[in-house]
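Run folding on both entries below.
>entry_1
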Amino acid sequence: MYKELAKTGVTLSLLWAEYCTKCELENTIPYQHAQFNEKYHAFAAAKKATLRINRKPGKIMEVDWVGNTLSVFDVAAGCNVNAYVFVACLPCSMYRYAGTFPDMKSNHWITARVHAYTHFGGCYAYFSS
């Protein structure tokens, strides 16, 4: 069922309807819809299965600051300084970019995104609805 749910247009309700049809052909009593959902979710939790989020390739770049700060040696200052890690990922290909910055202020947030777009060979386009 987990593999089926990964397909476009397949829902748990659709799988339940198919299950009911199969039960009818086999002359067995099917689970009710709520019970069917409960059993699937219990199975998914036990197997640590997750629901996939459908995305079109090249449409989204996921970004965030991650983890703890790193201690980086600053040659100009001659001492260790904290560095914040920025990560960007293209979710369909899992192609990623990471960079370090002295803080998480907006100027570095913008610079980090520009570096990521450059790394991926893409450009930033803003579309308003």
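>entry_2
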Amino acid sequence: MNKTFLLNNVRIVLSHTSHPGNIGSAARAMKTMGLADLRLVNPKRFPDPAAHAMSSGALDVLDNARVCASLEEALSGCVFTVGCTARRRDLSHPMLSARDAAPVLLKHAARQPVALVFGTEMSGLTNAELDRCQLLAHIPSNPDYSSLNLASAVQVLAYELRCALPGLPLPPADTPELAQHEDVELFYHQLERTLISTGFLNPAAPRRLMTRLRRLYARTLLEKEELNFLMGILKAMRKVD
């Protein structure tokens, strides 16, 4: 069975890209592997002639790219997000190699949109951006010089996604629907609000509690129905309070 249709549900998100040429090169990398959905979070310059020049014919990907005001907007509708980073962060989500992360991402793309997020050329993804991911991916490289060009990183991840397709088992048709990114973020907002109102969370000294809770719930991959239960519980707790 040809499973390239799964790539239609994979969104490439570039956050705060400085150089428009990297956007064009990333579009080219995407098109060579069959990816088309590009989201740009506050790029420094776009559209730009340098992006078109470096796309080498992938103008359709560039012309259809959506510029977003925030990562939240770029991830709207997604149910699973992988952040690409060169190093493990403190209290980070699980990290896999690009090769091992690819089938995990594609498994969820079988039914709903997913995203692969890349940070700035100089510093990568921020801790706040990584908090919005459920999994981290890294590209094994020379430990003495692990810096990859942004478009090169997109090319490697896109290649691994393409290579993972043939052996990928598709989930059963009755697999429960996962909660979308924006709904999960609303849950985190309401959870923090509730924890503050009960006195469990001191906003003056949060001690990274919400980061730890994000890790906990990210591991569960909340289903849409499960999230509705949790939101109902929080609502009831605030009424009692």
